[in-house]
Amino acid sequence: MKKLILAPLLASFISVAHAGLDEGVAAYNAGNYELALKEFRPLTEQGNARAQYSLGLMYSDGKGVPQDYAQAVSWFRKAAEQGIARAQYNLGVMYSDGQGVPQDYAQAMSWFRKAAEQGEARAQYNLGLMYSDGQGVPQDYAQAVSWFRKAAEQGIARAQYNLGVMYSDGQGVPQDYAQAMSWFRKAAEQGNALAQYNLGVMYEKGRGVPQDYAQVVNWFRKAAEQGNARAQYNLGVMYENGRGVPQDYAQAVNWFRKAAEQGMAQAQYNLGGIYQNGRGVPQDYAQAVGWYRKAAEQGIALAQNNLGRMYENGHGVPQDYAQAVDWYRKAAEQGIALAQNNLGLMYAKGQGVPQNVVVAYALFNLASVDATTKGAANTEVAISKMTPKQVEAGQRLSSEMAKPNNLSKAIATHLTKSK
Fold it and tell me: What Pfam family does this protein match (any one) (predicted)?
């Protein structure tokens, strides 16, 4: 669940004049916390709920007093029990985040509900989140939609975005891309980066609107400039492929790098490919290896295969067949036919592993289901060097390799039995 935000203290919050209260609020908003504390403290002792709420906020933020979540909870509770919606909301936040009290989603739900029923929009949004995530209540998408809608209609951008997601995914409501677009747009126009990114996706896929690559670029750019990694990556793809913008590899590199530096694996892989091929940047095998490695370590199978190829050829790293085999194996385990074929070649040539024609054949046979590899041709070459008994063993091994997550185990078992 996303971290929740405390309701602030605003002069507009005060609806009833009270000696000292207006002065305290003015002092707080001016940053004179010492004077604010002096004005609020006597009022809290008289049971003034708004002053109690204000003092809770000062303890929560550590303004004018040492930060003390337990004290914040105490004062929020006093005000909440007198019906102050913002205090109820903030008390819900404290329970949700486990600040000043043990984390307790059921208590958070209770206080959010009290505030939400008074029309507190942030509480309505948080109720929607908790129903959506099943925190403190059984997961209930219909209830999530109901509360997101109440908050969205009050202009809460995150609620508008989440309501768009519910319509897009058909959770709690019938799937409706036009409605999803409508709510994403409302949130996006308020600057919500996730909504801007999703609008770009909707235009790219033609969901709820005609496909429009110029609009895709427009919305991806807005989100990317706010640091959204997926938008940065996708904007890089648009520049790389010349969709919605003139093809521009330098711009593609720029946006892939921004996403890659945030740890986005697919962007790291793409950046590796760009450096390997010298598009938009001078060809640099060392940089290619660096970015492939980052993506490969996050499990991107094609990056693992390409890193294996770099080790096999000694591009950007010293030639190392054992490392090549290791990375080919990781990619082959994930079902990448090209890596299965490459690993088969290593076994056929005895590079990085003991030469073994049966294992090579089994891997070529496994890869041959993908016509873009040379698996089928390599299978025929291997058969020409094998006995009928070896071919039979290779076919059995290939069947074992095809089982989920069993490729390396199958090879190891075969090699052990062959000794």
Answer: Sel1
| Number of CB atoms found within 10 A of residue 180's CB | 24
* pLDDT tens digits, 352-384: 999 999 999 999 999 999 988 998 999 999 999
**pLDDT-based confidence at residue 18 (cuts at 50, 70, 90):** low
Residue holding tokens 């980066």? 193
Q: How far apart are CA 118 and CA 124, in angstroms?
A: 10
Q: Half-sphere exposure of 64 toward its Cβ, with a 13 Å CA cutoff? A: 23
Residue 126 and residue 115 in contact, taking contact as beta carbons nearer than 8 Å: no
Distance CA 218, CA 241 (A): 16
Q: Which two tokens stand for residue 179?
A: 């409605």
For 17, 29, 178, the CA distances from 12, given in Å and listed in that order, are 11, 11, 36
At 242-267, the pLDDT tens digits run 999 999 999 999 999 999 999 999 99
Q: Which two tokens stand for residue 166?
A: 């519910």
Which residue from 374, 348, 370 is spatially nearest to 359, judged by alpha carbons? Answer: 348
Helix (H) or strand (E) holding 234: helix 229-241
Tokens 């030639």 appear where? Answer: 319
Nearest-5° Cα angle at 358, 355 to 364: 95
Q: Which tokens is 366 given?
A: 């496994």
In one-letter notation, the amino acid at residue 304 is: Q
For the chain, give the longest Cα–Cα distance: 100
**Residue 45: how many other CB atoms lie within 10 Å:** 10
Question: Contact, 296 vs 303, CB < 8 A?
Answer: yes
CB-based contact 268:276 (threshold 8 Å):
no
Rg (CA), the chain: 30
Q: Which domains does the chain have, with CATH numbers?
A: 1-118 (1.25.40.10), 299-419 (1.25.40.10)
pTM: 0.86
Q: Classify the phi-psi angles of 183: left when phi > 0, otherwise alpha if psi is within -120 to 50, otherwise beta.
A: alpha
pLDDT tens profile 135-180:
989 999 999 999 999 999 999 999 999 999 999 999 999 999 999 9
